[in-house]
Amino acid sequence: MMEEKSEHVVRKFENTGSGTDDDDNGCANKQHSSEEPDPPSPTAHGDFSDPVYKEISLANGTINRMTRDELRAKCAELKLDTRGVKDVLRKRLKNYYKKQKLKQAAASGGLGDTYYDYICVVDFEATCEENNPQDFLHEIIEFPIVLIDTHTLEIVDSFQEYVKPEVNPQLSDFCVDLTGITQKMVDEADTFPCVLRRVVVWLQEKELGTKYKYALLTDGSWDMSKFLYTQCRLSQIRYPQFARKWINIRKSYGNYYKVARSQTKLMCMLENLGMQYEGRLHCGLDDSRNIARIAIRMLKDGCQLRVNERLHGGEPQSVPITAPFEGAPPPQKPKSRD
């Protein structure tokens, strides 16, 4: 059942101000500092009785006592990114020393933190009205994908197509102003099943799910559990298996940097990482690129991005960290609902 207001519309009124490297105000002022030494996470390098973990804990304690200026100076000395609020800089330094200590302690080196070869960032744009009725059916009108190579930590490709809505083919003025998608764009576009078929071909050409492990990543739960789920039902096609699990970057960001849920909106995440939005806000492709920039920054900071949500009975469910690791299955062409 659709909620009274779509997050797709609620997002539009998020704070769009951007912070600076010298100011911890705005989004950043609600971060939760962690002043205790961080416990090291389990790795394949051995158990916690190894002296290296005591060294890591001591280093964490030292980093916790550093001021923001000291953190930035140390990052600069180590040629690390100096942007971000205090908690982000602290996490960046801890991860650097953790990796260095474990590399020194193990002949294999590295942490094996990369679960996937590629991450596909998806951020749909959908039909909307300024005040959506409770039963308003959101139809996807832009299908963007931004492809991240997790080994090079770069955006390596992208896909974008507009989609013709069929239930409510006329876009509202609010939707046009918000997304920049015109009536002419959607009138000249193909319907969703046709676009989804080309998405599948694009993914297959990248050998995702066959030669390379991959996962989808979204900014929240709505893209998959509301927009894609609703669209598949409207188009009378089965929900694609490759999209049944995804990485919700808001959860990953909040858990890794220890911030409140209210501070995991797109603009806040960018601001707290010392970045600014690039492009046109609410353009699906530009939103996806900015989400990808956040994901890359998190990977560089040592975050282990992995699937944390799935679709079950049309609703999003959390995937526990203890769940077996698996990539998304090979994409298959859309199938009609029986």
Describe this structure in words.
- This is 3'-5' exoribonuclease 1.
- The protein is of the alpha+beta class and 338 residues long.
- 36% of the residues lie in helices and 13% in strands.
- Strands 1, 2, 3, 4, 5, 6, 7 and 8 form an eight-stranded mixed beta sheet that branches.
- Helix 2 packs antiparallel against helix 4 and helix 3 packs across helix 4.
> How can the largest sheet be summarized?
8 strands, mixed
Strand segment tally: 8
Rg over CA atoms, rounded to whole Å, is 21 Å
| Shape assignment | globular
* Helix fraction by DSSP (H/I, runs of at least 4): 25-40%
- Tell me the strand percentage band: 5-15%
> Total helix count?
11
Task: Reconstruct the topology from this structure.
Elements: H1 7-10, H2 51-64, H3 68-77, H4 86-105, E1 118-122, E2 125-126, E3 140-149, E4 154-162, H5 173-179, H6 183-187, H7 192-205, E5 214-218, H8 222-234, E6 245-248, H9 249-257, H10 266-272, H11 284-300, E7 309-312, E8 315-318
Parallel strand pairs: 1-5, 5-6
Antiparallel strand pairs: 1-3, 2-3, 3-4, 6-7, 7-8
Helix pairs in contact: 2-4, 3-4
Features:
eight-stranded mixed sheet, 13% strand, single chain, 36% helix, alpha+beta, RNA-mediated gene silencing
Short description:
The chain has 338 residues and is α+β, with helices and mostly antiparallel strands.
